[in-house]
Amino acid sequence: MAAWAKRLAGVRGVLLDISGVLYDSGEGGGTPIDGSVEAVARLKRSQLKVRFCTNESQKSRGELVRLLRRLGFNISEDEVTAPAPAACQILKERGLRPHLLIHDGVRPEFDQIDTSNPNCVVMADAGDDFSYRNMNQAFQLLMELERPVLISLGKGRYYKETSGLMLDVGAYMKALEYACGIEAEVVGKPSPEFFRSALQAMGLEAHQAVMIGDDIVGDVGGAQQCGMRALQVRTGKFRPSDEHHPEVQADGYVDNLAEAVDLLLQHAHE
């Protein structure tokens, strides 16, 4: 236990991934992971600050929060850092008018964005809308631009639903990068700016926070590159090979969020 005390000493805030840590999405909205509802409640009763940091791009923040509340979680919209609002801010600041290759569920986040005469492409986890026709339309638009801009809400390879593993936006992002000979701008994990915005919302420095996620690269690696500590849960998209990743090593591996919270509440203030 002394090792955990050293790893978690001085933690003042916790960033929580949602999908694969709190719940697995799927039919009927999904299923909470065992112990996660009470684990979040225990964190919120503690002195630790809590922020939910997600790459969810099939739902608006409001829809996601309503779903999580139905599943029993104590969560509010202003506690969630998500990529769509961050992308909208970038679009406004840079005067960009996007062609949207996104899921209908997240489209309301872009209601105030001018999409006429597009001069960039914004893509998210579009699910079944990742058809050849839609991908080709985005490809053609990018190829017509003198300075093509591709913005992706995350670059995850896959995620976990109750029915199994599902391809994520990163696979389709890489296809457009390859076809167009460009590099996408990623808004969301593992982007350093995304983690910094979550830390800023918590009023904490990176060394005071720990990230808990199921993605060894997006959650763990991204957080560590920003100076945070990071734990990987063995739920969601976790694979045993993650513990032997050639580039990223978590500060600790735990079976689930409940175990992580037990350790945090025991050692964070030591």
Q: Key terms for this structure?
A:
270 residues, alpha/beta, six-stranded parallel sheet, four-stranded parallel sheet, 9 helices, 36% helix
Write the SSE topology.
Elements: H1 2-8, E1 13-16, E2 23-24, E3 31-32, H2 36-45, E4 49-53, H3 61-70, E5 80-81, H4 83-94, E6 98-101, E7 120-123, H5 132-144, E8 150-152, E9 158-161, E10 164-167, H6 169-180, E11 185-186, H7 192-202, E12 209-213, H8 216-225, E13 229-233, E14 252-254, H9 257-267
Parallel strand pairs: 1-4, 1-12, 4-5, 6-7, 7-8, 8-11, 12-13, 13-14
Antiparallel strand pairs: 2-3, 9-10
Helix pairs in contact: 1-9, 2-9, 5-6
Would you mind describing this structure in some detail?
It is built from 9 helices and 14 strands. The mean pLDDT is 95. It is an alpha/beta fold and 270 residues long. A 6-stranded parallel β-sheet has the order 5-4-1-12-13-14, sandwiched between helices. A 4-stranded parallel β-sheet has the order 6-7-8-11, with helices on one face. Helix 1 packs across helix 9 (257-267), helix 2 (36-45) packs parallel to helix 9 and helix 5 crosses helix 6. A hairpin with a 2-residue loop joins strand 9 and strand 10 (164-167).
